[in-house]
Write a structure and sequence with these properties.
Elements (H helix, E strand, L loop, with lengths): L1 H23 L5 H7 L14 H32 L1 H16 L8 H14 L3 H17 L9 H12 L6 H9 L9 H22 L7 H21 L4 H29 L4 H18 L1 H16 L2 H15 L10 H6 L4 H15 L4 H11 L4 H11 L8 H24 L1
Protein name: Spore maturation protein SpmA
Organism: Pedobacter africanus
Length: 423
């Protein structure tokens, strides 16, 4: 019900705001651009896609997902038949059994989740999505109420949405293309924010599910992960922008190829029909991509209406005026559009970040803050629509509220770190 109400609110608010602009402020063509507008149309003053074009974009996105999902789910099928997922489940079992008490020991979903979290950590969105969808499918097998999100599914998605990421390569690349004096200066703030957001998500959901996180196993795992991240940070800060980009490419893409190699070798060692296993898994990838089309269309259309109606501009203006009235520093408000739109659309947030750089300069406080927002959070509503939609969950319970609360913690942390690092 929560998702239904939020989706309805998006549409109602957007149309009301557009109606006010049309009938009270003389923007008579706003309805036209909201429906049939195209971002690449020179005559379009909004430079945003309307709902018709957005429907095409949603379908094209799912079509592109088909190949990626087929590839990675095919490989996952090989890994499952060869016993690799069970092995991974046993390794992470002591930690995950505390956070996911409803999952039986050694269940494949644990392996699927760790693959998803690892891909997220390395910034491999193309790999993270198939692994995450497979994890949701595995968790759905344990779900007693098939249309209601289980505790394990909520915990998994909240941790996933927190978006723990090691190196924000795309943000660094964009800052470099905009001639920032130090494109990598947002690296440490981004890493800290994603880590804080992940811990916040874990604490929020654990509190709601009455999970005791003050346990030796959880503390040891969290401290161990923190130690590994700290070592990587110490190494990465010694590199320049080009070195970070090169290291990230070798680490992330090299690990993907290593996973491919280990899966195929494991399948051959276990004497399974490797290609047949791949085809079986790939078929599931195709089915999953088609299944999420209506969920993605519905969510992207609602987001499109919010953007084209100018609702975000109204919200930002109100926030800035409110802080100005209180006499507070309002520099952070200029970077907020990225934070507000990031839970809705990664592409739109990226465009907002570039726009902020072009408006205020790549080395401005607003641009750096915008970069931290972009590199330190994930697309909450996209994740909800795609992941819950893939297993036909209708009642998401408190999942969205928990994700948005963790996002808020991340936003507040990002603002604080921006002032700490960049004054």
């Amino acid at each position: 019900m929560a998702l239904s109400r939020i989706w309805s609110a998006f549409i109602i608010v957007a149309i009301v705001v557009a109606g006010v602009k049309c009938f009270f402020f003389g923007q008579s063509d706003i309805f036209n651009w909201m429906v049939i507008g195209k971002a690449d149309d020179p005559a379009n003053p909004l430079k945003l896609d309307g709902i018709i074009q957005t429907c095409w974009v949603a379908v094209e996105l799912c079509l592109k997902l088909i190949g990626i999902l087929a590839l990675f789910m095919g490989l996952m099928s090989i890994a499952e038949r060869a016993g690799g997922i069970r092995l991974l489940s046993r390794i992470v079992g002591p930690f995950f059994s505390k956070l996911f008490p409803d999952i039986p020991k050694g269940h494949p979903s644990m392996g699927h989740m760790i693959m998803n979290f690892s891909a997220n950590l390395l910034g491999l969105d193309n790999a993270a999505t198939p692994f995450g969808l497979k994890a949701m499918e595995s968790l759905q097998e344990l779900n007693p109420s098939k249309d209601v999100a289980s505790n394990s599914q909520i915990m998994f998605l909240c941790l996933h949405a927190a978006g723990l990421n090691l190196i924000p390569v795309s943000v660094i690349a964009i800052r470099a293309s905009q001639n920032a004096s130090n494109p990598t200066d947002i690296f440490i703030p981004c890493l800290i924010v994603t880590f804080v957001g992940t811990i916040a998500a874990m604490l929020i959901v654990s509190f709601k599910q009455k999970i005791n996180i003050i346990q030796p196993v959880i503390i040891i795992w969290v401290l161990s992960i923190s130690f590994v991240i700290a070592l990587l940070v110490l190494y990465i800060v010694s590199l320049n922008a080009e070195g970070i980009k090169s290291f990230s490419g070798i680490l992330s893409n090299g690990l993907i190829l290593l996973v491919f190699l280990l899966i195929v070798l494991g399948g051959l060692y276990k004497k399974i029909d490797v290609f047949d296993a791949f085809i079986d898994g790939a078929k599931n990838g195709f089915d999953t991509a088609i299944k999420i089309v209506p969920y993605l269309v519905g969510m992207l259309v609602a987001i499109s209406l919010l953007r084209t109606s100018g609702t975000f501009d109204v919200v930002i203006s109100a926030i800035k005026n409110g802080f100005a009235f209180l006499g507070a520093d309002t520099r952070f408000v200029e970077g907020l559009p990225t934070a507000l739109i990031r839970p809705l659309s990664g592409g739109a947030a990226r465009g907002m970040m570039v726009s902020t750089m072009e408006t205020y300069g790549p080395d401005s406080f607003a641009s750096r803050l915008s970069g931290i927002f972009q590199g330190a959070s994930d697309t909450t509503f996209y994740i909800v629509a795609v992941y819950f939609g893939s297993v036909s969950i209708k009642n998401t319970r408190y999942a969205i509220g928990a994700m948005l609360l963790a996002d808020l913690v991340g936003v507040c942390t990002a603002i604080g770190l921006a002032y700490l690092f960049f004054g």
